[in-house]
């Protein structure tokens, strides 16, 4: 049985429907990438899983438990942590406080602590007492990833890590992922950048207009098929 | 008239206003909620202490220590069952609901305790004073000021050196993202209002021992608290103390010139401060 699974997931913003029956799964230890153009529904999917948006209970199952209707703090306590789109650091908190708050709702022992996060991203240690928002975009992204890891999650959800960052910085950030996988976390990565997604993922899902249009292992997927699934058949 | 004495009295009075304001400042800083019943809750706590002293014969400071957890519980319940339901993008519902609560409290107290003015007896402390050089300073005003300092030091430590304080600040920054960290914003708000009401119990002790009170004086205390918070700059507790001191000094100087000008002088100081420093004396860098 998959660690995390969605079953015909639908999601709404008031009466606007953003997801139309999304089925996907994540196995323990796996890294899955979700790609899609602007407005495909990737962030809506992340918000649904993390509990920011409420859904029908059975539409999201984690470790055999229906979690679709749980609120974000309850989902987090089960061990699903999110790196939200746009990083979302707390401006009133220093870098170190931003990291510390990541384990507010979940006290578990595991590989991740302030020390190991600072080993993963040494630059954060130098800037630990700066306000989180005084950092460069790439460093802020490191804080946001570190903050999510502080809870030692079973599942790490990452929404568009590369947003607004230069390619060389994106490379730095993805360089941390082998260590994160090693630590035992299963990972969902949302990206617009297909190339980056293919490199890190065991499996790939393509989304368009609130539906999954393609899925499979990166090696097995044809370029044209991905292109069609990403932009629509006639583009 | 002795100007040094007048200014000193004003500074010490500022401590009382800072105590009125600290809870208001905390709650506003964390959840952007302006509690229009804040003054009436101070009066409610004053009656609570008055009753504890009167019926059980307690020392007023002991009565305050008992009133603090009771007020904490009242704050927690109010936030959980009333205020949390009003919070949202629209700022009108919390104003209407807390205004309604203000009216209810005033009339409830009027029913229960009549319009007679009361005072919490504090024995020899009422008139006790100490010599500072050539000045005589009341022990009660000194205790008030010392309590204000202690409250602000403790609240600042709570905000900046504890896990709960981090949760307060994070929730204030972004409640949705705070939820992703495992913070339950509504519970956090309930604790914050509880703490604000515990501080209100301290303010109530000094309000009720230093002067007479009756069920109608809440709104004026709210205004003093509000002016202190705004003059000090939103979100800064030391600023709130500074704002309280400006208000207290302006009132005592005004009152020394002409007793009828006391209240007016405070309001004029408020307008002048805002004229020259629209964001207050110590505005917080991030808003
Ligand atoms: N808060 C909201 N209220 C109303 N509609 C929304 C809201 N957020 C997103 N939408 C709509 O839902 C759809 C899916 O948006 P979503 O943010 O999930 O896309 P996305 O795939 O993450 O896009 P991007 O790559 O730009 O981040 C879009 O049509 C969007 O306009
Ligand atoms: Mg998105």
Automatic annotation (TrEMBL), chain A:
One matching Pfam family: ABC_tran
Domain of life: Bacteria
Protein task: Involved in beta-(1-->2)glucan export. Transmembrane domains (TMD) form a pore in the inner membrane and the ATP-binding domain (NBD) is responsible for energy generation.
PANTHER family xref list: HIGH-AFFINITY BRANCHED-CHAIN AMINO ACID TRANSPORT ATP-BINDING PROTEIN (PTHR43820:SF5), HIGH-AFFINITY BRANCHED-CHAIN AMINO ACID TRANSPORT ATP-BINDING PROTEIN LIVF (PTHR43820)
Residue stretches making up the ABC transporter domain: 4-234
Record bears the keyword Transport: yes
Gene Ontology molecular-function annotations: ATP binding; ATP hydrolysis activity; branched-chain amino acid transmembrane transporter activity
The family this protein is said to belong to: Belongs to the ABC transporter superfamily.
Name of the protein this chain belongs to: ABC transporter ATP-binding protein
UniProt-listed CDD domains: ABC_TM1139_LivF_branched (cd03224)
Key words of the record: Amino-acid transport, ATP-binding, Nucleotide-binding, Transport
Organism in which the protein naturally occurs: Bradyrhizobium macuxiense
GO terms (BP aspect): L-amino acid transport
UniProtKB/TrEMBL annotation, chain B:
GO cellular component term, pick one: plasma membrane
A Gene Ontology biological process term: amino acid transport
Keywords, ordered alphabetically: Amino-acid transport, Cell membrane, Membrane, Transmembrane, Transmembrane helix, Transport
Stored InterPro entries: ABC_transp_permease, BCAA_transport_permease
Record bears the keyword Transport: yes
Subcellular location: Cell membrane
PANTHER family: AMINO ACID ABC TRANSPORTER PERMEASE PROTEIN (PTHR11795:SF445), BRANCHED-CHAIN AMINO ACID TRANSPORT SYSTEM PERMEASE PROTEIN LIVH (PTHR11795)
Protein name: ABC transporter permease
Species: Bradyrhizobium macuxiense
Origin organism lineage: Bacteria, Pseudomonadati, Pseudomonadota, Alphaproteobacteria, Hyphomicrobiales
